[in-house]
Amino acid sequence: MNLTRLINPLFDSRARQSLRAADDAPQVQRRLLAGMLAAARNTEWGRAHRYGSLASYADFAEAVEVTPYEKIRPMVMRMIRGEKDILWPGVTRRFAQSSGTSGGKSKFVPITDDMLNRGHFHGSGLVVAHYLCNYPDSRLFSGRALILGGSFANELGLADRRVRVGDLSANLIEAINPLAELVRTPSRRTALLADWNVKLPQLAREVSRCRVSNLSGVPSWMLTVLREVMRISGVSELHELWPGLEVFFHGGIAFGPYRSQYDSIIDPSRMRYMETYNASEGFFALQDDPASRAMMLLMDSGVFYEFRPVGSPDATPVTVADVRPGEIYELIITTLGGLWRYPIGDTVRVESINPVKITIAGRTKSFINAFGEEVMVFNTDAAIARTCAETGAVVADYTAAPVFADGGRKGRHQWLIEFDRQPASTEEFAMLLDRNLCRENSDYQAKRSGGIFLAPLSVTAVPRGFFDRWLAATGKLGGQRKVPRLSNDRSVIDPMLRMLNIHS
User: Fold this and answer.
1) What SS3 class is residue 51?
2) What is the pTM of this model?
3) Which of 76, 283, 356, 470 might form a disulfide with 278, Cβ 3.0–4.6 angstroms?
C-alpha cells in the first residue's frame, strides 16, 4: 500500500491555500500586518510605537524605523530572563541562536508559539505539500526523513531550564508533534547532541539502520553525514542502502556548488531536489516549480515583507505590491516572533510577480565591492560552477576577500578553495575562474579590463577538512554551519591564513 497516496489529499488542500494567498499577496499581507499590530498593541514595544492608533502600512512605516538586531538586543535579553509582553505578548521560552553581530558573538531570535506554529511548522508542511503536488507518484511516507539538527549549547548560563536557547533546528525537533517522530530519524536524543565528534558517528550508525526516503538540511553538512553513512555501511552509492530515497529538501546555502558531489553518491535519475528558504527568523519561500530555480514567497507564514533596493541604505522600502522583477532588494521582515521591520541580512532578486518569486542573491554583508566591482555570492557561485564544469574539479567550499593595492601592487581577489576533486592545475583553475567571473559580473569585468585596475584573482587550495577546523576554532561547527563566501575586508580570511601559516 502506498501510504503517501492516502495522505496526499490532506497536503493538497494546504498547497492550494498557499497558492491562493500568493495570488492575493497584497491583501493577505495587509491583513497579516493588521493582525500583528493588534496583537502587540499592549506590549512594551507596541505601546512605545502607538500600535493602537496605527491604521495602515504607511502609519506603521512612519512610526517604526528599520530596526537591526543591536537595537533590540537588550529587550531580547530581558525576554530570555522571563519578562513578558516585551516584543510580543506573553512569555517566550524558546530562542534561536545564530551568528553574532557587532554587539556580541551570538544573537538570539525569539521563537514565540505563534511563530513556531504559524511560521516554521506551517512552512515545513507547505514544502511537503508542494512537493507532493509536483510528484503525485511519490512514496515519501514509505520511509523516514533524515533531518539534521543542532543543539541547545549556549554560553548564557541559564538557571531557568524552561528557557531553551540553541539552534533553530534543535528547537523545531524538540517541539515537533510526537507523531512526526514516527517518520523522522535520527532519534531526538541523538539529533540534539552538542558534540559533533560524538554525534556524527552515532547519527550515521542510527540512520543507516533506517529506511530513508528524504533528506532535510544544509547541503555542506548533509554531505559530511552522508559520506560517513556510506563509509560505515560499505556502500558506494546511497540507493544501495536506501532504495526509496527520492528527495533532498535543502536550504541555508546555495546548492549549485554541491550538485556534482551529490550526483557522485546518489543516482541523479532517481533523486529530486527542492530548495527552501528558511532561517531562525522565519520560513520565507519554497521552490514550488521543479523546472525553475525561483522560489515562491510565502504570504501566509507569519512574515510581513518589505524590500529595500540594494545600493542605497537610505532608499524607502516597498511592499510586495510594488516590487519589480529583475531588481535586487534587501529583505526586511516583521514577524509573529516580535521582530519589527528587521533587516534579516539577505538580499533577494525578484524573478517574477503575481505570484512573487525570488532567488537569493546573497548576504548584505557577503559581497566584495572594494574596487567598485559589486561582486555578490550568486556571481561567484555561478563562476565556480562553470569553472568546475570546464576543469572536472569539484569544490567543497570556498571563501574570498580583497587584497588591497599596496607598494605598487594592484588590488585583486584572493580565494581559498577546498576541493573535493582537485583540478589538474590550480593556476589554470584560477585563470578560468577569473574569466568566468568576468562573464558573470560586468563591473568586475570592467575593473579587470586590460589589467589596469585589478590584477587577476588568486586561488589557494586548502587541505581537505580545513573549513571544518576553522569553524570548530570559531565555535560555529555544526549542522547549520556556513563558511562566509565573500567578505569586503580581511577580517575573515586573515585568521584563516594564519591557521594555514601563509601570507596574502
Assistant:
1) helix
2) 0.79
3) 283
